Amino acid sequence: MAAALAFSVAAGILVGAVGIAPGGDVIAALLGGGDGPSATIVRELRLPRVVAAALVGGALAVAGALLQGLLRNPLADPYVTGTSAGGALGAVAAIAFLGPGGGALIPVCAFARALLAVMLTWRLARIGGRTTVLAVLLAGIALSAFAGSLITVLLVASDRLALRLRAVVDVLVSAA
Fold first, then answer.
1. Which of 73, 84, 154, 169 could join 78 via S-S bond, C-beta 3.0 to 4.6 A?
2. Does the pTM of the predicted model rise above 0.70?
3. Is the alpha carbon torsion for 59, 61, 62, 66 positive or negative?
């Protein structure tokens, strides 16, 4: 895995819209020296992107391992526990109700709804008294199905509303 990470980092630094030869320019740019466009591209564009991708990938891997360890089930993931469906529902609801102007609030709404989905999954799993791993997974699957149906309702309703608004605007334009 370490070799795959090193290869991915090297490929991320060397491959891009502007071809940079793997040689002295790249190494000098990585060590803080060098000048010119290739050093600027490596230091200011590609290196931060590659480091961010490696950190996010590592964080996702740790989160997945923690989730599987916590539930003691190798099949546990955010899709089975309802977290992803809850986040998707929050994003779709934000887009449907806030419109394109609510761009910065969409990730916040998705995160808040994902947290709510986790709490709701845990609460559903505790209904029978003792919480088991099977109850958590089944509650997550049920919540995912319910959130998926709400997403479908929002998409269909917003599409029909957009069609109605377009028809109203067409009528108003033709009357004027």
1. 84
2. no
3. positive
Residue showing tokens 């709400």: 150
